[in-house]
Amino acid sequence: MLGLSALGRIEPGRPADLALFDVTGPRWLGSHDRLAGPVISGGQAQLRASFVAGRPIVTQGRLDWLDLDQLAADAERVTARLRRAA
User: Fold this and answer.
1) SUPFAM superfamilies from the entry (predicted)?
2) How do residues 10-30 score in pLDDT, each as one tens digit?
């Protein structure tokens, strides 16, 4: 999409960083380039999948590898520590 030939290729067995957005909603209709919609139209685009070095990070819009309960507990603990320090 960016037209940068130095970035390489998307091929099986090669590492790739990709982000796949759902641009089928009404917000994206009538855009001169639907592929550029998440960049130029602003708003919240639904991230469906992302890969870093070929490894899936987001799948079906979810971070299955991330324990959100643990993340919330860690954030609360750090926030409480910052409040006490202030």
Assistant:
1) Composite domain of metallo-dependent hydrolases
2) 778 777 788 888 877 777 777
pTM: 0.55
Domains of the chain by start residue, with CATH: 15-85 (2.30.40.10)
CB 17 within 8 A of CB 49: no
Rounded Cα distance between 50 and 41, Å, is 20
What's the CA gap between 44 and 27, in Å, rounded? 10
Cα–Cα distance, 24 to 42 (Å, whole number): 15
Q: Which residues contact 19 (CB under 8 A, 6 or more apart)?
A: 47, 49, 50
Give the DSSP letter of residue 26. G
